[in-house]
Write a structure and sequence with these properties.
The complex is a heterodimer.
Chain A: E1 13-22, E2 25-26, H1 28-37, E3 43-45, E4 57-60, H2 82-97, E5 110-115, H3 121-133, H4 142-146, H5 150-159, E6 164-168, H6 174-187, E7 193-200, H7 205-214, H8 226-230, E8 245-246, E9 248-255, H9 257-262, E10 269-278, H10 288-302, E11 309-313, H11 320-334, E12 340-342, H12 345-348, H13 355-369, E13 371-372, E14 388-389, E15 395-396, E16 402-408, E17 413-420
Parallel strand pairs in A: 4-8, 5-6, 5-7, 11-12, 11-16, 12-14
Antiparallel strand pairs in A: 1-2, 1-9, 1-10, 3-4, 7-9, 10-17, 13-15, 16-17
Chain B: H1 3-17, H2 37-51, H3 69-90
Classes of the chains: A alpha/beta, B mainly alpha.
């Protein structure tokens, strides 16, 4: 049997802008503030499905006061799904931070790489209600608003991207894969600059009830209050019991070092490594071996060793099986308690297809601030885990130079991104 | 054309379709709003739903050149009147 050639490290890609819409608020400042404070945006949520008894569930929604989807103008002039509106808002912040003047960018060298688990889900469920419950006619734009590449397409129109417009759907790894593939496209010279990230808004009654039926959402005892819901998700804790669904979007402007230099763009941080693979063993059960391979491949891609990594932003869903597999894979790669680990999901919820992008942003915030965000809510870590979980308050990390962010999806897709400080 | 009807049509255009308010005048033809044919169909659906009426297809093709917002508002008024008449007749 022939062995694959030894992987070689690729060039780092410049990140010159980022933007976010998350349950902690709209924009980078609100995100970073809640991240380091370890403040959860999860609240108690009743599912509106008449005739069905669905328990109250923990949800991290983007508050209406913070984000008005109707105020976001569609480049196509057609109605937007809520998630697509979030995508456009996040990208706008990223493009602004990057000082990316679209008139100065060669559109044929610009690509959109976007991840979503179920883009258009809110609109799709509304269309189903329209025909089945209300027995009213469909809107002529239903197809275009609900298609999986709807956010990709609107972003391509907004930024006049003519190099590529690709949508990635691999469940909870979708946006990590989108960002990694954008990096590959830039390294390969197919494009010079990309707007990459992900968006998700699946907080519809049907989808929430579907997740509840899987028994992976942290249970809430009625009568429950928002304070109890905010504590419901406890990643890596001995008493963990599942996650809270969330919604949001994060976007990044990625570009080759040459492109950034030519337009005098400031590099905020570098995307240094990426790997994706698949467990290939089970539709939902995570596989520590597949995760281990993915983390090692990402390290090789970045030209780094485990000792170079100063922080891991874990997938950390707070499910029994998920956290156990990930604790095992992190210990396999880094050694027992070999690297500080955070899961930020207790803060912003499980953002599904947008999770990889929002968590990469959390990882980059830690890298730039040299400060590790805490795993909110987690008191006692599961004693069977040989990992160093950052709990309580944010931890200073003055020597942090490289950080890893992992996304492990239903379907077995693993995606690992590595960021590096500039200089 | 009833002024409240035009005002409602105008608010749908500005709020839902982000059309420049300065462009939204009774004499403006639909095909001058900067909306493509699909968006125009969506717009007509939206105003019909706002008034809970249907304009018969043989009375309006929004893609046809020259149909103005005033004409659309009048068609909505007529559809509302026909519906009210029908409701009275069936009562």
């Amino acid at each position: 049997m022939s062995r694959a050639p030894e992987p070689r490290a690729g060039a780092p890609v410049v990140v010159s802008g980022s933007g976010v819409v998350s349950p902690t608020g709209v924009g980078l400042a609100a995100f970073e503030e809640a991240l380091f404070a370890g403040r959860s945006a999860v609240r108690a949520h009743a599912v509106d499905l008449p005739g069905l008894e669905v328990p109250i569930v923990p949800i991290a929604a983007v508050a209406g006061a913070a984000f008005d989807a109707a105020s976001v103008g569609a480049p196509s002039r057609l109605p937007l799904d809520r998630a697509t509106a979030m995508a456009l808002a996040a990208a706008e912040e990223a493009a602004r931070q990057a000082a990316l003047a679209i008139d100065d960018v060669d559109g044929e060298r610009l690509g959109i790489f976007w991840g979503s688990g179920m883009a258009g889900a809110t609109t799709f469920e509304q269309t189903c209600r329209t025909v089945y419950a209300d027995q009213r006619r469909m809107r002529p734009t239903s197809v275009i608003t609900t298609m999986p590449n709807a956010p990709t397409a609107e972003l391509a129109l907004r930024y006049r991207a003519r190099g590529a417009a690709l949508a990635y759907a691999c469940a909870c790894a979708s946006s990590a894969v989108a960002i990694g593939e954008a990096m590959r496209a830039i390294r390969a010279g197919w494009i010079d600059v990309a707007i990459a990230g992900g968006s998700e808004s699946l907080l519809t009654p049907g989808v929430v009830a579907s997740w509840q039926a899987m028994r992976v959402l942290a249970p809430l005892r009625a009568p429950c209050d928002d304070a109890a819901a905010a504590r419901a998700c406890r990643p890596f804790a001995a008493d963990r019991a599942g996650f809270a669904l969330g919604e949001g979007a994060a976007a990044f402007v990625l570009e080759s070092a040459e492109h950034a230099r030519a337009r005098s763009a400031e590099a905020l941080w570098h995307l240094a490594g990426y790997a994706t693979n698949c467990d290939g063993v089970h539709i939902t059960n995570p596989d520590a071996a597949g995760q281990t391979r993915a983390m090692r491949a990402a390290l090789a891609d970045a030209g780094l060793t485990p000792a170079d990594i100063g922080h891991v932003n874990a997938h950390g869903t707070a499910t029994l099986a998920g956290d156990a597999a990930e604790a095992a894979s992190i210990a396999a790669v880094f050694g027992a308690r070999g690297v500080p680990v955070t899961s930020t999901k207790a803060i912003h919820g499980h953002l599904l297809g947008a999770g990889g992008a929002v968590e990469l942003l959390a990882s980059a915030c830690a890298l730039v601030a040299q400060r590790l965000p805490p795993t909110a809510n987690t008191g006692a870590v599961d004693p069977s885990f040989a990992i160093d979980v950052v709990t309580g308050a944010a931890r200073p990390a003055h020597t942090l130079r490289h950080a890893m962010s992992s996304s492990f999806a239903f379907g077995g897709t693993n995606a690992v991104l590595i960021t590096s400080r500039v200089g | 054309m009833q002024p409240p009807t035009f005002a409602a049509v105008s608010s749908v255009l500005v709020e839902k379709f982000h059309v420049d308010a300065a462009l939204v005048r009774p004499e403006t033809p639909l095909d001058q709003l900067g909306l493509d044919s699909l968006a125009l169909m969506e717009f007509v659906f939206a105003v019909e739903d706002r008034f809970d009426v249907r304009i018969p297809e043989d009375r309006l093709d929004p893609r046809q050149a020259g149909v103005t917002l005033a004409q659309l508002a009048t068609l909505l008024d007529e559809a509302a009147a026909a519906k009210a008449g029908g409701d009275v007749a069936s009562a």
